[in-house]
Design goal:
528 residues; alpha+beta; five-stranded mixed β-sheet; three-stranded antiparallel β-sheet; 19 helices; 16 strands
Length: 528
């Protein structure tokens, strides 16, 4: 049965930034030191094994695969695992067709990268994929490499049928930006609570913080995408101050699913935003902000004092755009999220682990063990890490002052294009590795690192798959989104909240959605 993943709010928990590799090493290009890790010693595997890899997890599907004698990363994997690696890179947009053709012809790749949990479940149901449960106890380092929520996403029908594909990146795209120069001028402190934030936004709107004598500044601007969803455009971040989020965020508390988009605390979050709207601290252009680029233009113009934007807007190229558009480079700083009335302090939730590595059911026990050993080496070997995450030593990275330094941002365009193929191997890079991004502004790296402590756990609702018999699913989601916008703008007073809940039950069969949630949560072991 085809499974289609529901559109859920996926926001996330990442642990603090891990310590990167340090120490000295051989400076010769293309001669990385082979790890002495027991899992990666070639003599652990006496017999060479051929492994075919279907790698749609590459970070650049357009990059050609280099010859083996030039492919340093491939040589490392083959030497460490005593394998002959045959890697296939499907062209962008053609991966599913290519994989299905291979499966139909009986030529199933040994190792398959899949981009969604629904694909993982579907291919397992079709008898294509192996159950990895009997083998994973042998790979403790691999198990420790990913968090419980990532491994939970690999579970299906009580079995582990995949290995997490790569870390999603959190703690950067939803940073809390505020004009520190405006705070200083108005003699105000960085806000730490929703009430303090409101007072700052009000002052930014009413007290002429840019000193031009005009009533042309605002405390905040957000938006919603073209489908009418509030996620990712700023208003959802304000809702997290109250521990809730718009559809379809679901938590499990006391062995019961809690639907955060209709939780009583959502009413409080909407009342807070409605208070902002009534005080006119929100730039009225928010209704047209339906792409990230439009919000960036507001950032560059410098007439809004508080926004939710990507921390990379602190990088030099964006700073230059600010100067070109507004004539100045405002003193934007990234601050911690406000701590809400229930103790919530969330910059975002950790993104759902949709991508995975799966192994063909045709692979025998020895091949499965060899593949899992390769994945453990790829994702956990500290000496090998920079060779996969950053690229080729002496070109993309090197040892500087005893520490690993990513030099990718310093490369010429020609050099970057020459080595595009290293993107085929970047999957091990950690989602909280600031060095991987090669930030040019130390403040960007600092913001990224600081944000990690405010990334909450993945919501369990993301494990749900769509119920094909739920014909009202799309209409229900649309009604929820439209209702939340009406409440927060005041077009529908919050005194009608109970009517909203009643309409969900009577017209949009909310109970069917709840029944599906309970059934699938029980199957996943999330509730008893």
């Amino acid at each position: 049965m085809q499974r289609t993943k529901l559109s859920f709010t996926v926001l996330a928990a990442v642990v603090a930034l891990g310590t990167l590799l340090s120490g000295c090493g051989d400076q010769e290009v293309g001669k990385p030191t082979t790890s002495s890790s027991p899992q990666s010693e070639a003599n652990k595997f006496a017999k060479k094994v051929k492994i075919s890899m279907f790698n749609q997890g590459t970070f650049n599907a357009a990059a050609p695969i280099p010859p083996r004698d030039e492919d340093i990363q491939r040589q490392m994997l083959e030497k460490a695992m005593n394998i002959d690696l045959d890697m296939m890179i499907p062209q962008a947009g053609q991966a599913t067709t290519k994989l299905n053709t291979l499966i139909a012809g009986g030529d199933i790749p040994d190792l398959i990268f899949l981009k969604s949990r629904s694909d993982l479940a579907q291919y397992y149901d079709q008898g294509v994929l192996a159950d990895l449960t009997p083998y994973l106890d042998q790979f403790t380092e691999l198990q420790k490499r990913f968090g419980k929520d990532s491994w939970d996403a690999m579970s299906y029908l009580g079995k582990t049928i995949g290995v997490p594909g790569y870390d999603n990146v959190n703690g950067i795209s939803r940073s809390f930006f505020i004009r520190n120069d405006w705070l200083k001028k108005l003699n105000m402190k960085v806000p730490t609570t929703p009430d303090e934030l409101f007072e700052v936004m009000k002052a930014f709107t009413e007290k002429d913080p840019d000193g031009n004598g005009k009533n042309d500044t605002y405390g905040f601007i957000g938006g919603m995408n073209k489908e009418g969803n509030l996620q990712t455009y700023g208003f959802d971040s304000l809702m997290w101050m109250f521990g809730v989020n718009p559809p379809s965020a679901i938590e499990v508390i006391d062995n019961k699913p809690v639907y955060l988009f209709i939780d009583p605390k959502m009413k409080e979050a909407l009342a807070y935003i409605n208070k902002m709207m009534a005080a006119k601290v929100v730039d009225p252009d928010w209704v047209t902000m339906n792409t990230p680029d439009l919000l960036d233009q507001k950032l560059f113009k410098g007439k809004v004092g508080f926004m939710i934007r990507d921390a990379r807007r602190l990088e030099p190229d964006y700073q230059q755009k600010m100067k070109e558009i507004s004539g100045e480079v405002p003193e934007w700083i990234v601050i911690p999220p406000m701590k809400g009335p229930y103790g919530d302090q969330i910059v975002e939730r950790k993104s759902f682990q949709g991508n995975s590595w799966a192994i063909s059911k045709k692979a025998d026990k020895d091949k499965i063990i060899r593949i899992l050993s390769m994945l453990e080496y790829l994702f956990t070997d500290k000496e090998a890490y920079p060779n996969f995450a950053y690229g080729i030593k002496g070109i993309h990275w090197d040892i500087v002052d005893g520490k690993v330094k990513n030099k990718t941002s310093e490369l010429s365009k020609e050099m970057k294009e020459k080595y595009l193929w290293v993107d085929h191997y970047r999957m091990p890079r950690r989602g909280d590795d600031a060095e991987y991004f090669s930030f040019q502004n130390p403040k960007t790296a600092e913001a990224f690192t600081n944000n990690q402590q405010y990334v909450g756990p993945t919501l369990p609702g993301n494990l749900l798959t769509a119920d094909p018999s739920d014909t009202l699913a799309a209409d229900r989601t649309r009604f929820i989104n439209e209702s939340l916008v009406k409440f927060m703008t005041g077009k529908d007073p919050l005194t009608n909240w109970d009517n909203f809940l009643k309409t969900l039950d009577t017209k949009f069969d909310m109970q069917k959605y709840k029944d599906t949630t309970i059934k699938q949560f029980k199957e996943a072991g999330l509730i008893k």
